[in-house]
Amino acid sequence: MGNGHAPPRTALLIDPEPRIRQLLRFALEAHGYRIMEAGTANEARGWIALERPTLVLLELRLPDGDALDICRTLRRDTRTSNAVVLAMTTLGGDEQQRWALQAGADAVVLKPFRPGHLLALVGQLLAEREGPGGANWLRLTW
After folding, report:
1. Domain assignment of residue 4, yes or no
2. How many CA atoms lie within 13 A of 99 on its CB side?
3. Which of 47-56, 78-87, 116-125, 128-137 has the lowest mean pLDDT?
4. Which domain holds residue 19?
5. Is the pTM here over 0.85, yes or no?
6. Which residue, of 39, 47, 53, 132, has the greatest Cβ tally within 10 A?
7. Is the peptide bond before 112 cis (omega within 30 degrees of 0)?
8. Are 88 and 113 in contact (CB under 8 A)?
9. What are the pLDDT digits (tens) for 84-103?
10. Confidence (pLDDT) at 82
11. What single-letter DSSP state applies at residue 105?
12. 91 is a domain residue
């Protein structure tokens, strides 16, 4: 029984830095996202087993595991294969970025980033994935 409302989008924030997760949480909650947070690869795997995030922001350097493996897992699982995956890294090397894209990331963002730019990219990726209405949530001026 539908009530005419789309289910809330869910975002999984995977970053060992609580400060970064807090910044991302604040920005995405303001746009109606339900947020899940993981500071480690193990925590991320737990959330992925329980939930179906529509957006995953994934730091490529995790203290306990391979972030690229998490990305590949998301793409292989039919429940999460359509999620927008945005990899984040402080490493600017082309090779690292290429590996992330080959593993299934939709885009790679270099840290430090401006929240407005990150959200604009998320909106663009959602629009590409979901069609023209995918980015309607994004009405920002930073």
Report:
1. no
2. 15
3. 128-137
4. 10-135
5. yes
6. 53
7. yes
8. yes
9. 999 999 877 788 889 999 99
10. 93
11. -
12. yes
